[in-house]
Amino acid sequence: xxxxxxxxxxxxxxxxxxDMWADPDDDPRNSEGNSPDGELATLQDFLSGYRLxxxxxxxxxxxEQLARRSxxxxxxxxxxxxxxxAEVERDWRNWISDGDPLPTLYDKDDGDFNGAVxxxxxxxxxxxxxxxxxxxxxxxxxxxPDLGERLGxxxxxxxxxxxHRIEEYARHCGHxxxxxxxxxxRVGQ
Length: 189
Hints:
The protein is mainly alpha-helical. The protein is built from 5 helices and 2 strands, in the order ααααββα.
């Protein structure tokens, strides 16, 4: 267990604004021009931004750092968050399906975090799982561009699903901020 004096010093790569992750000109989340037109494009833009933020918070870390747990008794780690989001993306497809649910990616009692161990193969699998599940959920929803359309056994609106996905990523990006700062002191939006 780390003592307070063992904590890394806070730092940022930004030189313009000390509370930013990167300088605005270097931040891949910044786009040129106006924001997207229309509700669907706006929701997709926010989702893309939060997805990229989560990946950025994990960049440059080795397997041990990615698997490092937060404050006990929590089992949360950045690697665990990647695995959790992959599992959640898969589960969202269950919301819009009338068929049998897809099997879970990880042990259902795992909570996605206990299996997040400091092993490069586990890290590589987590990234591959996340990319595959995001693409599959995106493809499933692309077939339903009407945000008011109700899908699945519970009649969930496409809009509700997109907003919930944004909320899930945004919440976990907040966790990722704190986890990353604990690992190497890096701070920023």
